[in-house]
Design brief:
This protein is an all-alpha fold and about 150 residues long. It has a single domain, classed as Serine Threonine Protein Phosphatase 5, Tetratricopeptide repeat (Alpha Horseshoe), CATH 1.25.40. The protein contains 8 helices and no strands. Helix 3 packs parallel to helix 5. The chain is globular, with a radius of gyration of 15 Å.
Length: about 150
């Protein structure tokens, strides 16, 4: 993982729930030329998070749609990337079902379960992901056991 990607990951998790920090990170991500698939996925997640701060339902929907366009590109570029799949899963988990943006749950779950042990995450990040997936209630106990 490149240094910039590690910094973006750190800033992303620090920004959750903070509109100003998300806006700042999103601006930075938009300014990066020739971005990696992983940074594109972080941009997608930030685009989605910005929807929570809008009062206009059309703006919210536009943000979510933009987010999923970026996720589609990122997944197409690196289909087995666990971090990209985790980011998309976490956004899908938080998007209301009536928007029908959660069609890739099973696909993302399969990639997460099959490739998690190959991901080169530090212990804290691995435990965070496993905890999030467990708390989501969308994984069977047997699937969670495969994650570690």
């Amino acid at each position: 993982m490149k240094l910039e990607e590690k910094e973006i990951r750190k800033k992303y998790f620090e920004a959750i729930g903070n509109e100003r920090k998300i806006e700042k990170l999103l601006k930075h991500l938009r300014d990066i030329k020739n971005t990696s698939a992983l940074l594109m996925a972080y941009r997608a997640a930030c685009e989605s998070m910005m929807a929570q701060f809008s009062w206009n339902p059309y703006t919210k929907l536009a943000q979510v749609n933009k987010s999923f366009d970026f996720f589609e590109k990122a997944v197409k570029e690196e289909p087995q990337n666990v971090e990209i799949r985790f980011l998309r899963f976490s956004v899908q988990h938080n998007v209301p079902d009536f928007l029908r943006k959660n069609r890739e749950f099973e696909e993302d779950k399969d990639v997460l379960v099959e490739n998690f042990d190959k991901a080169n995450f530090d212990l804290d990040f691995s435990q965070f992901i496993i905890g999030y997936l467990k708390d989501s209630g969308r994984f069977e106990t047997s699937e969670l056991e495969l994650l570690g």
